[in-house]
Amino acid sequence: MAMRKGASSPCLLFLFFFFTLVLLGCPSLGHPNYKDALAKSILFFQGQRSGRLPTGQQMSWRSNSGLSDGSLARVDLTGGYYDAGDNVKFNFPMAFATTMLSWGTLEYGKRMGPQLQNSRAAIRWATDYLIKCATTTPNTLYVGVGDPTADHKCWERPEDMDTVRTVYSVSPRNPGSDVAGETAAALAAASMVFRKVDPKYSRLLLATAKKVMQFAMQYRGAYSDSLGSAVCPFYCSYSGYKDELLWGAAWLWRATNDASYLNFLQSLGANDASDIFSWDNKLAGARVLLSRRALIGNDKRVESFKQQAEDFMCRILPNSPSSSTSYTQGGLMFKLAESNLQYVTSITFLLSTYAKYMTASKHTFNCGSVRVSSTTLRNLAKQQVDYILGENPLKMSYMVGFGANFPKRIHHRGASIPSKASHPEAIGCDSGFQSFFYTSNPNPNILTGAIVGGPNQNDGFPDERTDYSHSEPATYINAAIVGPLAYLAGSYSS
Questions:
Q1: 141 in any annotated domain
Q2: What is the pTM of this model?
Q3: Which one of 151, 275, 459, 463 is the catalytic residue?
Q4: What's the CA gap between 327 and 458, in Å, rounded?
């Protein structure tokens, strides 16, 4: 750092920065062990697996579950992931988590080291299931297994599951452009992950993605309207389906370079401003993805998406005159009271990735009079990751199993009930609530790597199992942080 004339001595500057760090709640000039956090963030997905578990399963307190999924529709829909702390397979958030895992692997795979293979395995566990959902029955896309109302009235581990495993689908008569667009995005993104290591599987993924995207474009409608209480209020498509059509087409264009997808996404007119990115609203993600061509490829056809991506960044940065994002006193981005960390991890991914594109193209932009560089975005992304990993007022790591102080009573059925190995007898719905949900005892099983919903707007966290909005983990929270963790793991030695 260059010193201007009349500046303080290097020693005084060092002391100033040291005490600033202490005041900000940073215990030292070090940083969290990003490589350990990366490994655990991917390991978490093993705890969410449905179906017959492989011999290499490391999360050993889990065992086989959902082995008859799909049988009510006379099809095989085993596999995939439970979305959060329940035992339902909701394809909409599952596909988003798959897209984000794939995007993170595409952008940062070279920094993952030994975790690259584990990330691919986590992606494939989802895509094997999504392929079944898309190819088993003509003109039908299966989009979920398990009655959510019945499931949420029951507190039992997935291995004991005895609630009805209703099968849900969309079709030309009952469309779901949102869930189909997201499924297409997931399959297209994953096809690039496997392009060199498993070309045959990659071709299957891409062919299926094209088919599902055509379905999404041809039969327009929100899956919430088609399925009602099967997905609402759990995973309603609150933002509509236009953002998923944009997202899906953007991924198909990147995977195929077929200009028809560019023409389609330009015709959508999805011009709404956005200051959020989540399993529901994909506008910002699609714009950042498309900006890659504008910044690195100098493709003027997507210049408008680059401008929209930068408008999004200006709505996130705390010192921007157009910022619409709140931050807690401890420095955490705060979007919504329920499961806030899902927005933090997803937006942090966009910050990191747009910064990567900016670095490659030596690009900067302005938010009003504030100049924004790639370093600006990366610093904010690192601050958010560090907060999640324990550099916060409570010195609490919001990743289970990372650090000495982490949530012990997460809202998660499998983690909160003794495993089959330690308690072979079945535990029913009511006894699960009475014996394991309404208790202050720590969970008997550690869902390593799980990131919970996170603290409130005052940086407080009660660590109560009954408080699902703060203590429940989810696949889409974890999937988004894998990329930023891989970047940081490759940038800082532990």
A1: yes
A2: 0.94
A3: 463
A4: 10
Residue 453 maps to a domain: yes
Residue 246 falls inside a structural domain: yes
Q: HSE (CB half, 13 Å, CA atoms) of 235? A: 27
Catalytic residue (choose from 69, 86, 386, 472): 472
**Is 20 or 169 the better-scoring residue by pLDDT?**
169
Instruction: Give yes or no: 472 in active site.
Output: yes
pLDDT band at 80 (very low <50, low <70, confident <90, very high): very high
Among 36, 156, 411, 470, the one annotated catalytic: 411
Is the confidence at residue 255, as pLDDT, over 70?
Answer: yes
> Which domain range does residue 353 map to?
31-491
230: left (phi over 0), alpha (psi -120 to 50) or beta: alpha
Q: Is 34 helix (H, G, I), strand (E, B) or coil?
A: helix
| Residues belonging to the chain | 494
Burial of 100 (0-12, 13-18, 19+ CB in 10 A): buried
Q: How many domains does the chain have?
A: 1
Structure confidence at residue 12 (pLDDT): 38
- What is the CATH number for 333? 1.50.10.10
pLDDT tens digits for range 139-174: 999 999 999 999 999 999 999 999 999 999 999 999
Residue 77 Cα distances to 67, 101, 125, 136, 164, angstroms: 9, 21, 12, 9, 14
411 is catalytic: yes
